[in-house]
Amino acid sequence: MKKTWLLLLLSTATFAQDIHFNSILVDTHNDCLTACIEKKVSLDQDLTGINHSDLARFKKGGVDYQLFSIWCDGEKANPYAWAMREMDSLYAVAARNPDKMVIAKSWKDLNRAFNENKLAAQFGVEGGHMIESDLKKLVTFYDRGARYMTLTWNNSPGWASSHADEKNPAYQGYKGLTDFGKTVVKKMNQLGMIVDISHVGEATFWDVINTTTKPIIASHSNSYSVCPVSRNLKDDQILAIGKNGGVIHLNFFSGFVDVDFFKKDAAFRKNHTAEIDSLLKTGMQTEYAFTVISDKYPQESDAIKPDLEQLMKHFDHIVKLIGVDHVGLGSDFDGINSAPKQLKTVLDYPLFTQALITRGYSDKDISKVLGGNFLRVYKANNLD
Fold first, then answer.
1. In the predicted model, what is the mean pLDDT of the chain?
2. How many CB atoms are closer than 10 A to CB 57?
3. Helices 32-39 and 79-96, interaxial angle, to 10°?
4. Cα–Cα distance between 318 and 328 in angstroms, integer?
5. pTM above 0.85, yes or no
6. What distance, in Å, lies between the first and last C-alpha atoms of the chain?
7. Where does the pLDDT of residue 75 fall: very low under 50, low under 70, confident under 90, or very high at 90 and above?
8. Which residues contact 2 (CB under 8 A, 6 or more apart)?
9. Confidence (pLDDT) at 330
10. What is d(CA 105, CA 121) in angstroms, rounded to the nearest whole number?
11. pLDDT at 1
């Protein structure tokens, strides 16, 4: 009996590998460019034990198409200049590795990358503050390969309100999209830059739904019903995204997977306050100081992580509401200090595929989730 069970387990794992590596895998959100700058390393180095990702491990994990997050927090001076630095860093990696990756600016470029077995790379601008309220800068982002923009990060750019500000009683700014904010959305539709509603507040979300003429995405968000935090999407929002034809890409961050994680993480950080403060004094952004400490104490940080099955509860809930055509992957790797225990790095994506097989999904549906759903939204937004 034990031998039969073991053979079945091995057979399932092999089947998962086959489906996984024969599908186009798209991850809509990875922060490794920021992580590389903060840690003073390069993406084309072996970053095992340093980052969740590097160029070689994308290939080994089956990633075919990565949208690289361009991010800085709301405190960073000259966010547009910082964004250009991050984009320059990926262009430099691409120039050094023309046999391994291509920055794709068209559907033709994407197909060429897939056919030549190279990583297709594009950018996602994480936070509307990075355009500095200038539509010309938005166009520059697009021209350089940005194919979506998250309208807000946790801060509000002045023309759209974030989830964090909308729930803050002290926030005195405009809630939702201002007239300029609606102009930004319309310009994005015109350019072919996908509107991303991860991080936005509910007022902004509904203004987007009533303004956009193209399918939208949540590049890295989960279900509020499963994990009630303001970064996750409520059921009426999920239903609206389904009606819009958009896609919700699952975020691996433990705190958006399991609400109990935050208390455990607070205790972990308290135990390492002095080390975190020391990193902050060097100028490191707060999010990355937490990540460095989590990596330094893996046994402690692993002990408080949720299981992969908890992430799959988000998947199941979204599929129940709007179907398998509206879910994808937006890991947030290298922008988070904790993910489900089984999903430690980009090498672990096949385990997600195996979880889909265990649930009985067909090859066709699994390929949709891994990348096909995003590709549909990309085509609906772009005329290239």
1. 94
2. 17
3. 90
4. 11
5. yes
6. 56
7. confident
8. none
9. 98
10. 9
11. 43
Two tokens at 234?
């409520």
Q: Are 345 and 61 in contact (CB under 8 A)?
A: yes
**CB atoms inside a 10 Å sphere around CB 302:** 12
User: In the chain, what's the furthest Cα-to-Cα distance?
Assistant: 66
Cα separations in angstroms, 66 against 15, 124, 338? 24, 10, 20
For residue 197, pLDDT over 60 is answered with yes
Distance CA 74, CA 113 (A): 34
pLDDT in the model for residue 14? 65
Return the bridge partners of 329, or none.
Answer: 27, 250
Given a cut of 80, whether residue 375 has pLDDT beyond it is: yes
Per-residue DSSP letters for 280-349? HHTT--HHHHHHHHHHHSHHHHHHTPPPHHHHHHHHHHHHHHH-GGGEEE---BTS-S---TT--SGGGH
* pLDDT 10s digits, 29-50: 999 999 999 999 999 999 999 9
- What phi and psi, each to the nearest 5 degrees, are found at residue 54? -160, 170
CB under 8 Å to 338, separation ≥6 — which residues? 253, 254, 255, 261, 265, 294, 301, 304, 305
Q: What is the pLDDT of residue 89?
A: 98
Going from the N-terminus, what domains does the chain have, and what CATH number goes with each? Answer: 2-381 (3.20.20.140)
Q: Answer for the pair 42, 93: CB distance below 8 angstroms, yes or no.
A: yes
Flag whether pLDDT at 21 surpasses 60. yes
Sign of CA dihedral 321, 324, 327, 329: positive
Of 67, 110, 127, 151, residue with least CA distance to 332: 67
What is residue 145's three-state secondary structure?
coil
357-364 contacts: CB < 8 A, separation 24 or more?
357/12, 357/15, 357/16, 357/19, 358/12, 359/312, 359/316, 361/324, 363/19
Which residues on neighbouring strands pair with residue 328, listed in sequence order?
Answer: 249
Q: What is the pLDDT of residues 225-238, one digit of tens each?
A: 999 999 999 999 99
Strands 25-30 and 101-103: unpaired
